[in-house]
Amino acid sequence: MEDTAITYKQGISLIILFISGSAIIFTPGIAAKQDVWLATVLAMLFALPILLIYERLLYLFPHKDLFDILQITFGKGIGKIISILYVWFSFHLGYLVLINFGDFISIVGLNETPETVSLLCIIVLCIGAVKYGIEVIGRWGEIAVIFLVISTFILIILSINNMDINNLKPILYNGMKPVLKGTFSIFSFPFAELVIFTMVFTIFKEKGAPKVYRKGLFLGGILILITSVTDILVLGASIAEIYYFPAYAVARRINVGEFIQRIEIFTSLVFLIGGIVKISMCLLAASKGVAKLLNFKDYRFIVTPIGIMMVNLSIISYESVMEMSKWAVEVWPYYAFLFQVILPIIILAGVEVKRKRVKSI
């Protein structure tokens, strides 16, 4: 199967887009209310050891992705069983992000347009990107991340007049329980979802230990921290908790001298760019996994069927945005914990045990 090399800078750009693109619009960890900033910082700290596991696997097995590592470490039987689980997780996460897209477009924009049309337009872009490969996506990501950062900071600067520092007070008014709940929520979405990149990152042009995960976590986490605090400063915790898309509501309130207003299109573009990257990475991971499970030489010919399946499931899985939001808040963090934390720890333990056995022979 053909592997293409990307630079560390491209890898970090893709991680930033993956982390912040879809999360910025939602204000993850809003359960912590005005202490969402503290929950975000704690989530970054808790995510760091897990991301170091991902980096360790990438370092120990150059030119190999997670599916290769599983079969090398556990053999074809157990390796393929765990690979199937990760193919499902990638596929599942991909169509969940598609659902978010469909809901966003239906709620804030094209109310009369069938959701299927919007989803098909998005998946066609993702399918095209995945077929071109990770190298092309990486080059595009270098440019897209600049737009994301500039747009985000422009929106924040223009929102200063609407901010109220009192919305961040009192600190820890409800104790640590809501903060820990928000921390767990942010940890699972979006930080630990970076496990997807263990299935798509294989070769970097630079030599040495890759630090793309921790650098991407830091930069993407800072963006989420800043935007989450902005949402609370402008809307207040109680109002931000009501909105499905708080960042969009913040952008709608911008009005500078009756001249600069109605610029929420920038928020939509940020969400679009980040979401396309996230769906593309999930689609790429699922396609590569299926190809390796079935011993295909190339994954590209199965990208389109898997993409269409994502659209189909995104249409029939949930009846409303309320049902989807409830599942994402109450079920997803615990469901994803298996794939994001438990299995990676088991995999790394298996890798280290096998390395010691090989050295002792």
What does this structure look like?
With 361 residues, the chain is an all-alpha fold. It has a single domain (5-360), classed as Hydantoin permease. 71% of the residues lie in helices and 2% in strands. The chain contains 13 helices and four strands. The protein has helices spanning 8-23, 36-60, 66-108, 115-132, 134-158, 176-188, 212-235, 237-240, 246-252, 265-293, 303-316, 321-330, 332-360; strands spanning 5-6, 203-204, 255-256, 260-261. The strands form two sheets. The protein has a two-stranded parallel ribbon. It has a two-stranded antiparallel ribbon with strand order 3-4. Strand 3 (255-256) and strand 4 (260-261) form a beta hairpin. Helix 3 (66-108) packs across helix 11, helix 4 (115-132) crosses helix 10 (265-293) and helix 5 runs antiparallel to helix 10. The longest helix has 43 residues, at 66-108. It starts with a strand and ends with a helix. It is a multi-pass membrane protein. Keywords: Germination, Membrane, Transmembrane, Transmembrane helix, Transport. It comes from Clostridium ganghwense. The chain crosses the membrane at residues 12-30, 36-54, 85-110, 116-134, 143-163, 183-204, 216-245, 265-287, 299-320, 332-351. This is Endospore germination permease.
Please describe the structure with a list of short key phrases separated by commas or semicolons.
globular, germination, 361 residues, 13 helices, 71% helix, Hydantoin permease, membrane, two-stranded parallel ribbon, 4 strands, mainly alpha
Which strand-content bin applies to the residues?
under 5%
What is the architecture at the second tier of CATH? Orthogonal Bundle
Low-confidence stretches: none
Write the H/E string, N to C. Answer: EHHHHHHEHHHEEHHHH
Total beta strand runs: 4
Please work out how many helical segments DSSP would assign. Answer: 13
Coarse morphology: globular
Ends apart, CA distance between termini: 31 Å
